[in-house]
């Protein structure tokens, strides 16, 4: 006959107790991790605040190896892997859009950790890289040195709203890779670029474009300091007002989808949990990845090119 007395119940109780400890410890660990990774929930963070949050640092490092831009894929491709190959393809696209001779002097405005600048330097350009986020500048300097490109790339702190330290007509080309979207005063930035370019100098801007003034993405845009939301058709007008001509725009939205889909899929479950807990605004990158993917069509990815007459 089975023993159903108190001594048989004890191991079951013990197991339950152990399970509760394990579950409790797990919940504590996950909560601690969430609290550790969360940004401070600032409603209007500066660019530096946004990029300095641990969530941003860990996210960009984990998913993009600190190259903070989209990859370019074949239309209809499903797999986002290998991400680095697609990122090089995006850099190549920017390089061909610049259409400048080797030896040209270009500015990388918002160079991040310097990967695009290094691609351009290897193609034969002399690059002036600028940025305003201190740990990106440190990273860029280290990367440039490690790759022996210090004679081709200068890395300096500069805000593209204020470029008075650079001479008029001293550049053949200026580009932004997912940077101009952060501009507080896009018209001023373009006027600065215009002043720095030689006649026939070019700008190429590879940017997410929220010119449709998406209401659903408004929170995401504010939290990631993406102020540059223009009216539809706004880019062309803005570029023309700054004195550029020969405007051309390529819509690359379909060609960046595999990576955005990856962000959406990876972030979906955590995002739903954060939303339930009401702390989604403390995880801007997760929120941006998922919301942008869910509302695909509210923005696009564009390559803009224009020439200084
Ligand atoms: C999405 S990251 C792109 C970095 C780099 N272009 C890349 O593709 O890896 C945007 C970068 O723009 C920089 N940035 C934002 N506003 C800027 C400004 N006003 N002047 C210069 N850099 C700026 C940020 O610090 C950040 O490094």
Poorly predicted parts: none
| Strand coverage percent | 15-25%
Sheet with the most strands? 7 strands, mixed
Bound molecules: S-adenosylmethionine
Looking at the structure, the CATH topology of the largest domain is: Rossmann fold
Order of helices and strands: HHHHEHEHEEHEHHEHHE
Shape: elongated
GO molecular function, one term: sterol 24-C-methyltransferase activity
Protein name: S-adenosyl-L-methionine-dependent methyltransferase
InterPro entries: Erg6_SMT_methyltransf (IPR050447), Methyltransf_11 (IPR013216), SAM-dependent_MTases_sf (IPR029063)
Family: Belongs to the class I-like SAM-binding methyltransferase superfamily. Erg6/SMT family.
């Amino acid at each position: 006959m089975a023993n159903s007395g108190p001594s048989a119940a004890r191991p079951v109780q013990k197991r339950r107790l152990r399970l509760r400890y394990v579950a409790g410890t797990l919940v504590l660990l996950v909560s601690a991790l969430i609290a550790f990774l969360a940004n401070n929930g600032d409603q209007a963070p500066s660019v530096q605040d946004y990029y300095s949050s641990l969530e941003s640092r860990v996210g960009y490092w984990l998913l993009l190896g600190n190259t903070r831009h989209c990859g370019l894929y074949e239309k209809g491709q499903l797999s986002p892997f290998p991400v680095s190959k697609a990122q090089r393809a995006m850099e190549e696209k920017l390089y061909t859009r610049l259409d400048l001779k080797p030896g040209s002097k270009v500015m990388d405005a918002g160079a991040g950790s310097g990967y695009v600048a290094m691609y351009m330097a290897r193609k034969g350009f002399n690059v002036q890289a600028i940025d305003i986020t201190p740990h990106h500048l440190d990273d860029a300097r280290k990367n440039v040195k490690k790759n022996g490109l210090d004679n081709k790339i200068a890395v300096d702190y500069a805000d593209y709203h204020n470029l008075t330290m650079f001479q008029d007509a001293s550049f053949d080309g200026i580009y932004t890779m997912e940077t101009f979207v952060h501009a507080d005063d896009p018209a001023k930035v373009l006027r600065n670029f215009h002043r720095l370019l030689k006649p026939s100098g070019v700008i190429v801007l590879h940017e997410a474009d929220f010119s449709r003034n998406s209401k659903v993405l408004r929170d995401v845009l504010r939290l990631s300091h993406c102020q540059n939301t223009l009216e539809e058709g706004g880019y062309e007008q803005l570029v023309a007002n700054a004195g550029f001509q020969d405007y051309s725009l390529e819509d690359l939205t379909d060609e960046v989808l595999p990576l955005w889909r990856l962000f959406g899929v990876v972030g979906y479950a955590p995002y739903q949990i954060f939303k339930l807990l009401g702390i989604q605004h403390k995880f801007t990158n997760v929120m941006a990845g998922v919301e942008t993917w869910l509302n695909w069509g509210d923005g696009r990815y564009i390559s803009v090119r224009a020439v200084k007459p």
